[in-house]
Amino acid sequence: MNNAAALAQPTPTRSLPVPHAPAWSVDAILALFELPFTDLLFRAQEALRANFDPNAVQRSTLLSIKTGNCSEDCGYCSQSKRYQTGLDAQPLLSTAEVLAAARAAKEQGAGRFCMGAAWRGPKEKDLPAVMAMVQAVKDLGLETCVTLGILKDGQAEQLRAAGLDYYNHNLDTAPEFYGDVVTTHTYQDRLDTLRKVREAGLKVCSGGIVGMGETREHRAGLIAKLANLDPPPESVPINNLVPIPGTPMAERAAIDIFEFARTIAAARVTMPRSYVRLSAGREQMSAAEQTLCFLAGANSIFYGDHLLTTSNPQMELDNALFENLGLRGV
Ligand code: SAM
Ligand code: DTB
Ligand code: SF4
Questions:
Q1: How many CA atoms lie less than 13 Å away from 183 in the CB half-sphere?
Q2: Can you tell me the distance from the alpha carbon of 197 to that of 49, in angstroms, rounded to the nearest whole number?
Q3: Which residue of 15, 96, 126, 222 has the fewest CB atoms within a 10 Å radius of its CB?
């Protein structure tokens, strides 16, 4: 064997666990935020182009399968029963209703169908109905995603068996700020659910919200937590807070669009192989502002006229924007 061949041999592996060194410190991510804006966007474009077709944008359609009356006190959410938001609560939809919405989404060109429930987490009695929905949507040939809150042991495995591809569960912000956003569950509860989802072999969708009154350090802290998951989430939704009248965050000042784009770019640079989704808040952005986010490395959107309880840009508007920019929806 020559030297080159010897070097190419894999090193014999031992069964000792290899400690996982955090790849990204909060300081290193803060340094990204502090780069001159176009330098950061250039870094983000390099990361995007090394891993993806830069003009293909993944499109997911959302459906709220159970709306409102939620026990939790997430300060941004229209669906908490603690806040007077004027929301019309709805019990769990039937599989037929979900299927009709999924068919329509597929016809419009969505690649993934995401079903969200306003639960702290699913009860055992709820799971069979959700599993039937997942199976029916999967059978249409769509990728499936659900967001149901905190999972108990075994529930992720049941969902996987029904044909689930992705589980969405957002860390939402940095651990240090989480107590200012929610008090009825902990950051550790969220991390535990993400671990269960990963151990069940599901793909992870996890991101957060920007514009809740957090600091730049908190934004960097959220990105660090996500990027240091091992492996990082396949899908990273970055939501711009949609202020909901009646919630504690109703009057939060809108975040500067350049700071929002920096957050997207930091996610792109630190999680180069993940889909980074420009998520809630798009309707409040101009076409140029959304384009800035695509330049910052976003390559996924929610597609369809509704998010969960708020509206999203009309599909015709998105189609026109994609046409104008030469983007291809997938
Ligand atoms: N109940 C489940 C949970 O909390 O995990 C699933 C549904 S919950 C509505 C899903 C995510 O939507 C939240 O984690 C948050 O990131 C996002 N979200 C909810 N309300 C929002 C708002 N007003 N603005 C921006 N994002 C929001
Ligand atoms: C995510 O990160 N954003 C979506 C989805 N995952 C479930 C939800 C956005 C909700 C926006 C407010 C609403 O429509 O209620
Ligand atoms: Fe409930 Fe989820 Fe809204 Fe929190 S974010 S109040 S858990 S629906």
A1: 3
A2: 29
A3: 15
Check residue 262 and report its DSSP letter: H
Alpha carbon distance 287, 202 (integer Å): 34
Q: Which residue has the tokens 């400690």?
A: 19
SS (H, E, C) 201-244: CCEEECCEEECCCCCHHHHHHHHHHHHCCCCCCCEEEEEECCCC
Phi/psi for 63 (5° steps) reads -140, 130
Which pTM value belongs to this model? 0.93
Q: Give the C-alpha separation, 275 to 294, whole Å.
A: 12
Cα–chain center distance at 148: 13
Distance 239 CA to ligand 3 centre (A): 14
Q: What is the pLDDT of residues 42-98, one digit of tens each?
A: 999 999 999 999 999 999 999 999 999 999 999 999 999 999 999 999 999 999 999
Rounded distance between C-alpha atoms, residue 312 and residue 303, angstroms: 8
- Longest CA pairwise span in the chain (Å): 74
For ligand 1, the distance from its centroid to the CA atom of residue 71, given in whole angstroms, is: 14
Distance CA 228, CA 226 (A): 5
Residues labelled catalytic: 70, 74, 77, 114, 145, 205, 277
Q: Is the CB of 72 under 6 A from ligand 3?
A: yes
Position of tokens 């059978």? 139
Cβ of 242 below 6 Å from ligand 2: yes
The three-class DSSP label of residue 129 is helix
Three-state DSSP class for residue 144: strand
Closest atom of ligand 1 to CA, residue 120? 1
The C-alpha atoms of residue 35 and residue 45 are separated, in whole angstroms, by: 14
Mean pLDDT of the 87-112 span: 94
